[in-house]
Amino acid sequence: MDATPFFTGAVQILIVLLAISAHEAAHAFAARRLGDPTAAMLGRASFNPLRHIDPIGTVMVPLVLVLLGLPVFGWGRPTPVLVQNFARPRRDDLLVTAAGAAANSFLAVAATIVLPIVLAALGPQARQASELTILGNFQQAGALAGFPVVFTILQIALINAYLVFFNLIPLPPFDGGQIVLLLLPADWAEKWERLKPYGFLVGIFLGVCGVLNLLMFPLTLILSLVIQL
Question: How much is the pTM?
Answer without folding.
Answer: 0.94
